């Protein structure tokens, strides 16, 4: 053991466990206490247990952690191919515009395999949105019965009604408004702009 002198009067010796320096007589008392503390593991303090102590509330057992959601397979290859196809079709459109040709047909839309299709409106949604939407769409479809033939008949009857109304009439001009317009026209022709010089 190495000897240390602080002020030249007393020797200080390091503790074998914690490394702190003590005088010889203090080190004799400190050594067993330090070994005892360092060998013992301290229990973590449970504040819930402490708060519930002395009450009728039973201690709450921790529920096991729910499993993490399953990791979906990445569809990066499909996204990459869609991206390349989009760029190619855009280049073809640009070339057709420059040359004056008709535009080529747009590429077919890509369908995300993770999306769920609504059986009522045939739109596609991710899982959480699909759960909400399908309930909503089911409720709406039960209220409104969509009949394409009825809708077409309504539109044609509206168009026929407009055709029967005939052309719009020209607005009538009252005598007071007509006189006012004539006065303005006369004032505009009689005043000749003069150059200020």
Automatic annotation (TrEMBL):
Keyword set, alphabetical order: Metal-binding, Repeat, Zinc, Zinc-finger
PROSITE patterns for the chain: ZF_C2HC_C3H
Segment forming the signal sequence: none
Family annotation (InterPro entries): ZC2HC1A/B-like, Znf_C2HC_C3H
Domain C2HC/C3H-type: 11-40, 114-143
Superkingdom as given in the UniProt entry: Eukaryota
Region Disordered, residue ranges: 48-75
GO molecular function: zinc ion binding
Protein's name in the database: Zinc finger C2HC-type containing 1B
């Amino acid at each position: 053991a190495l000897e240390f002198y602080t002020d030249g009067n007393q020797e200080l010796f390091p503790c074998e466990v914690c490394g702190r320096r003590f005088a010889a007589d203090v080190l004799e008392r400190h050594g067993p206490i330090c070994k005892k503390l360092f060998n013992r593991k301290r229990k973590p303090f449970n504040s819930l247990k402490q708060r519930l102590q002395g009450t009728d509330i039973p201690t709450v057992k921790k529920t096991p952690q729910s499993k993490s959601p399953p990791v979906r397979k990445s569809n990066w290859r499909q996204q990459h191919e869609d991206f390349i196809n989009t760029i190619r079709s855009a280049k073809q459109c640009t070339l057709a515009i420059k040359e004056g040709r008709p535009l080529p047909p747009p590429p077919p839309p890509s369908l995300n395999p993770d999306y769920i299709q609504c059986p009522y409106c045939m739109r596609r949604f991710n899982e959480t949105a699909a759960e909400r939407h399908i309930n909503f769409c089911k409720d709406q479809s039960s209220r409104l019965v969509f009949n394409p033939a009825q809708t077409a008949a309504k539109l044609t009857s509206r168009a026929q009604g407009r055709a029967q109304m005939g052309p719009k009439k020209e607005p009538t001009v009252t005598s007071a408004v007509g006189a006012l317009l004539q006065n303005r026209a006369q004032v505009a022709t009689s005043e000749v702009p003069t150059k200020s010089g």
